[in-house]
Amino acid sequence: MRTEGVAMGGDSMIGLAGQPGSITMPAEYPHVRVTNELRRRIREGIYPPGSKMPSRTEVAEEFEVSDIVVGSVMRTLKAERLTEALPGIGTFVVDPLPPGIRSSE
To answer: Per-residue pLDDT tens for 32-53?
Structure first.
């Protein structure tokens, strides 16, 4: 993330430095937080290759995020070739995982 002109405060918020009434936002967006956690679970084998991922509703409830955020997360994992969506069936961890993904590698 580009941080020029951005100040970090002790409250983990990011805002434009020196701007009166500047907009602040969380240091870690929900999309990033959920993507990183699901990626970690895939890497560590909690969701092993070939396994079905939790539904969008389950992910949204667990992480307390919107369905829009979950959709973005699922598209990111698919773009990274970690998951494959089968319409009407669900989203699955690819088998085999791309090289260098598992934490044991």
So the answer is: 999 999 999 999 999 999 999 9
Burial 2-32 (b: 16+ CB within 10 A, else e): eeeeeeeeeeeebbeeeeeeeeeeeeeebbe
Provide the domain limits for residue 73. Answer: 28-93
Q: Cα–Cα distance between 54 and 59 in angstroms, integer?
A: 6
What 8-state DSSP symbol labels residue 29?
-
Chain position carrying tokens 């434009």: 16
Question: Where does residue 71 rank: exposed (0-12), middle (13-18), buried (19+ CB within 10 A)?
Answer: middle
Q: What is the pTM of this model?
A: 0.69
CATH of the domain at 87: 1.10.10.10
Q: In this structure, is the dihedral angle defined by the CA atoms of residues 33, 34, 39 and 45, taken in order, positive or negative?
A: positive
Query: Structural domain tally of the chain?
Result: 1
pLDDT tens digit string along 49-92?
999 999 999 999 999 999 999 999 999 999 999 999 999 999 99
